[in-house]
Amino acid sequence: MNFDVVTLFPEMIESPFAGSIIGKAVSKELIHITAHNLRNWAEGRHLVTDDTPYGGGAGMVMKPEPICRAIEHLKQQRPGAKVIMMTPQGKTFNQHAAETLSAEAGLIFICGRYEGFDERIRSYVDAEYSIGDFVLTGGELPAMVMIDAIARLLPGVLGSAGSAEADSFSDGLLEHPHYTRPAEFMGKQVPEVLLSGNHARIAAWRRSQQLQRTLQRRPDLLDKVHLTDEDLAELKRLRQIL
Ligand code: 9D3
User: Fold this and answer.
1) Does residue 70 fall inside a structural domain?
2) Tally of domains within the chain
3) End of a domain among 118, 151, 184?
4) What's the CA-to-centroid distance between 5 and ligand 1, angstroms?
5) Does 158 map to a domain?
6) Residue 156 covered by a domain
7) H-run or E-run covering 25
8) Quick one: angle between helices 199-217 and 229-241, nearest 10?
9) Is 69 considered catalytic here?
10) How large is the C-alpha radius of gyration of the chain?
11) Which atom of ligand 1 is closest in space to residue 90's alpha carbon?
């Protein structure tokens, strides 16, 4: 899958993945991540990509022409790719969006700086995404976040351990606690059940811990997740004791 990133700071792209699992997927050519300098499509001696806002006010606005030319060029180079604009006004990116976007032939990310994009560029993009309600200085890190979340879902990118882990996220609950050796650390014991070798007991304990954690930390998730009759009975018990 091709990930193309249009940005005024191409040096920000790719290096965050060096050495990581995503970096290895790049080496194996399972994915391609290419940064494109927006100035390649700017005009004039100063290759200007921004301008002052009509109507006045502080800050600068990204001019539409360079972005539009970048989109037309890259769409021709990558047939079938979807164009994604990174903006604070976009839909909030989540795991469901990552799964949907991982089925695309390619993705072209448009990253902005300054106050925002000229409104007329919106008709040239397929979707707009934010990564959450906090203010960053540009769309580059959000694009990298999306590439990381999407690329790890592609065949061959993660090992077998990773695919199993993907399943556990998609059940919609928070994870149960994890322990490794030593069996005692600073006076804290590993829960006895995990040393019991009783796989049915371990599975029931882990499921209960998932429900407890989700109830305490992210009760909002419980409205969306599919729960069995056993889960509902356990939740009722947990609500009484917690
Ligand atoms: C003063 C009004 N600001 C909107 C909250 C303007 C503004 C702030 C920051 C416009 C652009 C930006 C830069 N951020 C992004 O481009 C961005 C972003 C983000 O800041 N948070 C979460 N997701 C994203 S996606 C792109």
Assistant:
1) yes
2) 2
3) 151
4) 17
5) no
6) no
7) helix 21-27
8) 60
9) no
10) 23
11) 25
pTM above 0.90, yes or no: yes
Catalytic residue chosen out of the listed positions 11, 43, 72, 115: 115
115 a catalytic residue: yes
Ligand 1: centre distance to CA 240 (Å) = 43
Residues 102 and 186 in one domain: no
Question: CA-CA distance, 8 to 74, in Å (whole number)?
Answer: 16
- Tens place of pLDDT per residue across the chain (242 aa): 999 999 999 999 989 999 999 999 999 999 999 999 999 999 999 999 999 999 999 999 999 999 999 999 999 999 999 999 999 999 999 999 999 999 999 999 999 988 999 999 999 999 999 999 999 999 999 999 999 999 999 999 998 766 656 555 668 999 999 999 999 999 999 999 999 999 999 999 999 999 999 999 999 999 999 999 999 999 999 999 99
Annotated active-site residue in 16, 53, 64, 88: 88
Do 28 and 36 contact (CB within 8 A), yes or no? no
In a domain, residue 201? The reply is yes
What letter does residue 152 receive in the DSSP assignment? T
